[in-house]
Amino acid sequence: MRAEVELRDIEIFLALAEELHFGRTAERLHVTQARVSQSIKKQERRVGGALFDRTSRAVRLTPLGAQLYQELDAGYRQIMDGVASVSAAARGTAGVLTLGTIGPHPFGLDDLVEAMELFQHRYPAAQLQHREIQPPAPLDPLRSGEVDVALLWLPVREPDLTVGPVTHTSPVLLMVAADHPFAQRDSICLEDLGDCIVVAGDSIPITWRRPSTPSILRRAAR
User: Fold this and answer.
1) Which residues of 211-222 are buried (b: 16+ CB within 10 A; e: fewer)?
2) Average pLDDT, whole number, for the chain?
């Protein structure tokens, strides 16, 4: 309690040194003029000298008051910045969170924006950034620290990465030419691709290739 009162007295002194008016200082700090006067008198008794010259027309800092202002101003602001930082951390997540996404997303951009806005509402002290992840090397940004969290296709089975909850599901689709035999079918299975030449790439995680590409015929299309 003592530290709180002394910090308030410092705030009153600094405000009066800037306003040079007891009434405006009281209004600025939402206290009475009597509270301002009592605080200044207490501080003057503590330092052993006058901090302000008071007349009916003006209030001025004395040389002693000007010296005290210079010494207290920077320290007070540093203390308040520290208090604000700790308070922000106490209210929730603070700092910068970079979200990486790989697109296109079946659930749509609107849902992504809504999720980001919800996060910002719940954690106002945090700063949220967005980065797009390229499919050929989707895990590199996580490992390099370029992004903190990534919204990716599953499965992801990497010993150095932690997989979070599933946000949405969507069907696996096959893209073929309009005159391809499969174009007339409502659905196919992986075995149907056994006689086809399919696209492959070593940079794409093998856990992504296996669910959609027959492992015995992973050949590059020509």
Assistant:
1) eebbeeeeeeee
2) 77
